[in-house]
Amino acid sequence: MTDDDRALVDRFLDMMAAEAGASPHTLAAYRNDITRAAEDLGGSVGTADAATLSRLGAEWAALSPATVARRSAALRRFFGFLMDEGLRDDDPSAALPRPRLERPLPRILDEREVTAIFEAAEERAASGEPAAVRNLAILELLYGSGVRASELVTLGRGALRQGQPFVILRGKGSKERLVPISSRAETAVGRWLEYVPSDSLWLFPSGKRHLSRVRLFQIVREIAALAGISPERISPHVLRHAFATHLLAGGADLRVLQSLLGHADIATTQIYTHVDSARLVELVNARHPLADRDR
Q: What is the helix, strand, coil percentage profile of the chain, to 5?
């Protein structure tokens, strides 16, 4: 990457931090993707024309579609910035590769398997062992409210208040959303709070910080193993998928589900409609205005 390119990228990232509120992780990802593109072009990326950018399709042929899409998106935003700032009078990004991405179907657990997991966790928690009580509270929040792993581990000690059936979470992009808390989760968390030091900043402390996502992953798998479920089939995110899938199967509205999950785009939420297509067909046949009309 040339010195001029580095200066342009620095200005671009300053804008992303100030105006878009991009996190350090996001800024580092943008810098890496643009730097890799410059290396693949073997010259200046800031002055590259459409013909030059069209070579990237061949250069990136061995990469996954997701990686190609991410790098192309980073460059499109970079060139858009250069146009907005008057640093270029053309936008060559139309020549960038646009791979077709197929969103993978989420791994899910059926209700019988979820019940087995909770039965194993409840049996352990009945002993009063602090770790077991904590683990049950974790499960209730993951499956009962669909919170992300990162949202759960960073919950403050006072995030859930007695008699308040919801919690305000700060999710991806620092966006806040209101998440309902089931009575089961409230009870489980209330029991766990008896073991949490009153001066703790976190609901799930670990040493001087909060529980790590890695440890959370291990806890969920350990409980699954107790229930006779292969640990490879489960993770905190799989429980979030189960929350969404089972709510939809129970008749939840897709827009409500989008709000509960904190999805910016409803297309992300629609992935869950695959799991219960039979129910959706039944719903149309039963509720459509012409359903009862004789053929």
A: 60, 5, 35
- CATH 3.30.360.10 assigned to domain 3-95? The reply is no
From the CB of residue 234, how many other CB atoms can be counted at a distance below 10 Å? 23
Strand ranges (E), 57-175? 166-170
Q: Can you give the residue ranges of every domain in the chain?
A: 3-95, 111-283
With contact defined as beta carbons under 8 Å apart, do 239 and 267 qualify? no
Measured distance CA(262)–CA(14) in Å, rounded? 27
Beta carbons of 75 and 96 less than 8 angstroms apart: yes
Distance CA 27, CA 7 (A): 15
Angle, helix 111-125 to helix 130-145, in steps of 10 degrees: 150
CA 257/CA 249 separation, integer angstroms = 11
User: In the chain, what percentage of residues exceed pLDDT 70?
Assistant: 79
**Which pLDDT does position 295 carry in this prediction?**
47
Q: 202-214: per-residue pLDDT in tens? A: 999 998 899 999 9
Which 8-state DSSP code applies to residue 73?
Answer: H
Q: Give the residue ranges of DSSP H helices in 128-276.
A: 130-145, 149-153, 183-193, 213-226, 236-249, 254-261, 266-269
pLDDT tens sequence across 25-68: 889 999 999 999 999 998 889 999 999 999 998 899 888 888 89
Torsions phi, psi for 31 (to 5 deg):
-60, -45
Reported CATH class of domain 111-283: mainly alpha
**73 close to 110: Cβ distance less than 8 angstroms:** no
Q: Hey, which residues are catalytic here?
A: 148, 172, 237, 240, 263, 272
CA distances from 73 to 26, 69, 98, 131, 207 (A): 13, 6, 9, 44, 40
